[in-house]
Amino acid sequence: MSANDTPIGPRWSRRRARAARMLAAGMDIAQVASELGLSPATARRYESAFVTGGADALLKMGDVGRRSRLSADELARVVQAIRQPPDRVGLQWECWTNSLVQRFIEREFRICYSYSHINRLIRDHGLQHWIRQVS
Fold it and tell me: 114 is in which domain, residue-wise?
């Protein structure tokens, strides 16, 4: 596979293929991380795999991180909740934030996720437009 091919596979395959194209074009790790919403550590792992084995090595890294403890139905409920104002699901807030999503999941399912897992959930399900970024 070349860096220009678009893979068919897990949800992260497209992002890794894009990272391979960016690295092949000479972009630095900070740019790749920023553009793709990756942590600097993940961008460095991507670069290391790409340098040693090219796009194929990057795409064959496998999925990393702990699996979600939410069932498919529970995850669908979270996504549906985020797509409406928080007060419709009993939260007295004006808009969704990452920490509010975290609290909602803990309240509804008694599952406590890390901030990075909440970020991944939001990104992987295309929910960024419903979340207000708080500094």
Answer: 72-130
